[in-house]
Automatic annotation (TrEMBL):
It comes from Lepisosteus oculatus (Spotted gar). PANTHER family: MKRN2 OPPOSITE STRAND PROTEIN. Residues 4-31 form the MKRN2 opposite strand protein-like N-terminal domain. It comes from the Eukaryota. This is MKRN2 opposite strand. Residues 40-194 form the MKRN2 opposite strand protein-like C-terminal domain.
């Protein structure tokens, strides 16, 4: 289970941890009487599960979890969620409809909350699209016709119904996926450092003004 990451400021350092210690790990001073600006804050996790990320594009490791086994080089798997949080994804067995196994995913929302007409039709669109012969198991190819092909083709079909231009794999990845996976990568580095050493300590003067400036 993912632990919450906490940040507090002391000794002109930003200190990240899973729990606030009784004494500062830098100077040993008691932290029982902190000033307001030294109060701990929670760092938002960049990960979301299918049940919380509806009508979204999800990315996760093909095997294992981002915060435990992922090494930055392992294969990734992608899928699309319906309005109930079920993750539709494509692999060598054909179309899968997963209710579990996507708890630690990077999420790219695909629908604005006020797009009621599209949301009402989303599940129907997704089910009909996924029933097409082109997504049968025998058509699967790891490099040419894979999970990303499935997800991006669906996204472009939805864009077409909205009268919008389609996106290439490069366009979609660079504009929507990479900004989120880069933030996830920083968080993974932070999380693993805390898991190994209990704390991750950086010079407070190096921070960029937000809670994602930990690497």
């Amino acid at each position: 289970m993912e632990k919450a990451v906490i940040k507090f400021h002391h000794c002109d350092k930003d200190i990240y941890c899973f729990f606030v210690p009784e004494n500062c790990p830098v100077c040993g001073e008691s932290l029982s009487c902190r000033r307001f600006e030294e109060a701990p804050v929670s760092i938002p996790s960049p990960f979301a599960g299918g049940q919380r990320a509806k009508c979204s594009f999800l990315v996760k490791p093909t095997t294992g979890e981002f915060l435990r086994e992922y090494d930055g080089r392992s294969d990734l798997h992608v899928g699309i969620t319906n309005t109930k949080g079920v993750v539709y994804n494509y692999n060598e067995t054909g179309i899968c409809r997963d209710e579990l196994g996507w708890d630690q995913s990077v999420s790219v929302p695909l629908v604005q909350p006020d797009m009621y007409s599209l949301i009402n039709q989303w599940d129907c669109y997704l089910e009909q699209f996924s029933s097409a012969e082109m997504w049968h198991s025998q058509r699967y190819n790891e490099t040419e016709h894979n999970c990303y092909t499935y997800a991006l083709t669906f996204i472009n079909c939805v864009l077409a119904t909205q009268g919008k231009s389609s996106l290439s794999k490069t366009e979609f990845t660079e504009k929507f996926v990479l900004p989120r996976t880069k933030r996830a990568s920083r968080y993974i580095t932070l999380y693993q450092e805390i898991s190994e050493n209990y704390f991750y300590i950086v010079d407070g003067s190096q921070k960029e003004g937000d809670d994602t400036s930990y690497v």
